[in-house]
Input
Amino acid sequence: MKHTLWKWKFLTFLLLILFSCQKDDAAKPDKDAHNHFGEQQIKKVTSRDIPKVMDFLNRKNEGQLRFKIKPSTIEGLPVKSSELDLIFTDLETDKILALTDEAGRTNYTFRLILESAPHYEGEESFFNLIVKEINTEEGYYAYIQEYRIDQNWYTSSLYLNMASYTGKMIFYSLEGLYMARVTFTGGEIVDDHLRTPCPDPDDPVNGDPGGSGGYGGDGTGGLIFTDIPCPCEGHLVGQGCTCAIPPLLIISEKFYSEDGKINESLRTVCGSAPDPCFLPNGDPCCTTEGCEDENDGTIINIPTKPCEKLNMISQNQDFMDKINELNTASNNTTPGTRREKGYIMEGPVTFPNYTYVESQPDDPNMNFNISTGSVISGYIHNHFFINETNANGEKMQSINVPSDADLVALYIIAKNNLIQQQFLGFPFIVVYQGNMYHLEITDVAAFIALGDLGFLNEDGRMSDFLKDEFVENNIKHENSSTSNMNNLAKLLHNGNVGLDLYQSPVNNPNWRKVKVNANNTVSLENCN
Output
């Protein structure tokens, strides 16, 4: 890119963001990830690779891979629960993490896709379904694990550093019955609660003898976290890491409370006796210290890649309702009614608050104010088709991908610290006639430094810097969306802008990175 030094002027109280968004005159899948950590092996699998596990889940759930965390009763049985969530979920079957221990016992971690969930102020929840292989006739048992993460903790980090984890881990039976809760502050367990599974027969309505108390005492064990820093295929401990995949985390569930072991309670929901289990030497697996025939380790399986985070956000119905509204606006070709519309997102990305903004009719420029000191968690908007000259003699042409003005708007947002940094990222999405495009900030310092060189004139208005770059790189109104997408990806890649481009269809969202290789060839990288 050409670099010209310009000065930057700040607005003191209100930041005016000019979205002159549309003026352009202005698959190759990853391989499975493997890792050997000591005597444990980590592998990514799909449902097709584990038919016995899937048969088990189908038997347990009457042939449906949908799960519900129930309120205070289960199958009409009055059982008091301290967790009153009501969450319907689907099972994601193509990104399953398998952890095999030295005895060959494998645990599987599935992601659960939320359909609806209550919002806990200051917290964000992720759900996994765990299937554990055990030496019984049935061969497995399963439960649901919730990571209810403190928002202040996860907004301060781009990755989950469990050494400082602040939040809760909540355990439910496969049938959706609350079983246990462990509370963390700064990586330390500060409180726990293990519910005795069956109601008190003398008080069936309120009978829940399980109490809560501080963590501690002799032989209580703990939840042990093991950071796997490099989940590359074939990586061995001690080798250099050759892939840029965020670390995996193994949780060894060796937690005990006064009433017993969490995973022992999850095996024997509501007091049902476990199937007989014997070790190869004939000794019973289950003793007063718990069952020894299972692998204690499980892996946290929540979104880490930008495409995974975008796919998760796109599973939220309210978010997709907004996207579909913007897509409809992008297809409007009736003069006098065409508008650029948008939503400012605030709060948790998965369940944000939305503020609606729009342009004047037939105007591809959108202005709105964000107060200095505010932060936002995302911004989504549409472009619409226009190719005409306005009353001032200015040529107005739409563009079918993020525009030069979009890059300037994102720069102003980043420059003024308006981005609510959080683990789920900052969605900056353009919608146009069936396609969505997201600009992912990969290096905020580099992006701001480049913007400081010439995105704005001395009067604070947008300069011709990026307009010239778009023309030079053949990103223009006349091109197809594919051509403009590829050329924009090359511009971002070759210019070291600190941004990556992602694309997805509006219908059946499937976010993929628009990747540029060493030969300057563009491909869509699947989110595996």
About this structure: Residues 14-29+306-525 form one domain.
